[in-house]
Structures are given as structure tokens and as C-alpha cells.
Amino acid sequence: VQLVESGGGWVQPGGSLRLSCAAPGFTFSIYAMSWYRQAPGKGRELVGSISSRGGSTNYANSVKGRFTISRDNAKNTVYLQMNSLKPEDTAVYYCQAGNYWGQGTQVTVSS
Question: How far apart are CA 63 and CA 107, in angstroms?
Fold first, then answer.
């Protein structure tokens, strides 16, 4: 099983990015999916989660109102839309499902 994140990069404060996590060949639709992040020198932090059918989401207080998680089960893909980005959002972002993790994608927010 392989989870593959993409969409990271550099963005100025106030900007937006959309991360994707694809899971080809994976029984995607039965899993709740989560996004985590890890900033330099810090532990891994839960950003938010989405239920298996997408009907329920929850977010860390630090991103609530700025980040949105969605999923397309037909495409075996989960998304993390990040708006109003701040320098403190700089981190490696990972998707997770059950015992499976992606390799991470770097997001850097700076001017």
C-alpha cells in the first residue's frame, strides 16, 4: 500500500496551496483519512481528519477556518486545501490511513 502526497511547495504568507494524497490500489473508501504535519524540531501534529465517506471532518484549532479536508473516493484521493497560510504552517505534511503513511510533502510559508 502506498500513499503519495503532492502539491507542496513555497508560498508567501496569506497564500494558498492544495495538497493531494493518492492511494492507488488501496481500499480507500473504508478508511478515515488524516493529515499530519511536522515542523522542524517539533513532533508530528494532527492537522485534521475526514470520515470514510467524507461526511464528517475535524481540525486542529490552529488551522480551523483556514484549512479544508475533502476526498474523492472514486479517485482514491484526499485533499487538504490550505488558505491564509502563515509562516508557522511551515512543515512536512503527511497523509495517514490506518497503519499507512505517505512519504510527506514540504510546505514552506515565507516572504
Answer: 14
